[in-house]
Amino acid sequence: MRKLIVSQWMSLDGVIQAPMSPDEDRDGGFRYGGWHADHMKDPASMQRVIRTITEAGGFLLGRKTWEIFAAYWPTAPTEVAVLADPLNTRPKFVASRSLSAPLAWQNSTLLGTDLAKAVQALKRETGGPLVVFGSTKLIETLMQHELIDELRLTIDPVLLGTGKRLFPDGGHASTMDLIDSQVTSTGAVLATYAIRLEHVA
User: Which of 3, 59, 111, 170 has fewest C-beta within 10 Å?
Assistant: First the structure.
């Protein structure tokens, strides 16, 4: 069995929409795109991203996140090769009802219509962990089916008041154990949680 890890940059009020650039995701009229970019300048934050990506055995992505990644990483500049190389060469598993095979970005595979069953099969394989970035709707489904083993959150000292949230109302109740934490020079908290299988009482 291999782990399924969700890695997210999150505001203090739980927003994960468009962390890196203004035009990344304007759904719902979101106008705060790029809110996380300054916090990425901290070495601890960057090293955490590098470690998560380089240790991954593959990536599990929703359609929109896959499209954003597929438009950037194949031609990413050489100075980010440490991230681009694993993202380009390792398997990408894509949850989508609208995309059609074959997918243009190398080593990308569409998952079947039974997402939970497909992810369960991937987790039974050997290899490095599967890592999820972005992909809010996908994460909701993974939470509902208790398929997430670990959350790696970078929680920025920012309140946005609007936007897509990692944990929307009506989501799955879970109990977590804090297994690691660190405060960066910008005031962000790097927190790693293991998700327990038992339900909240």
Answer: 170
Torsion of CA 26, 151, 176, 174, to 10 degrees: 50
The first and second tokens of residue 160, run together, are 């946005």
Domain count, the chain: 1
Residue 174 in domain: yes
CATH of the domain at 38: 3.40.430.10
Place of tokens 């291999």: 2
Q: State the residue range of the domain holding 63.
A: 17-129+136-195
Asked whether residue 6 is assigned to any structural domain, the reply reads no
Residue 31 scores a pLDDT above 90 = yes
CA 107 and chain centroid, separation:
18
Q: What are phi and psi of 85, to 5 degrees?
A: -60, -55
- 122: its two tokens: 């991937």
Q: How many other β-carbons are positioned within 10 Å of the β-carbon of residue 22?
A: 14
Lowest mean per-residue pLDDT among 84-88, 101-105, 189-193:
101-105
DSSP secondary structure code for residue 22 in this structure: T
pTM over 0.90: yes
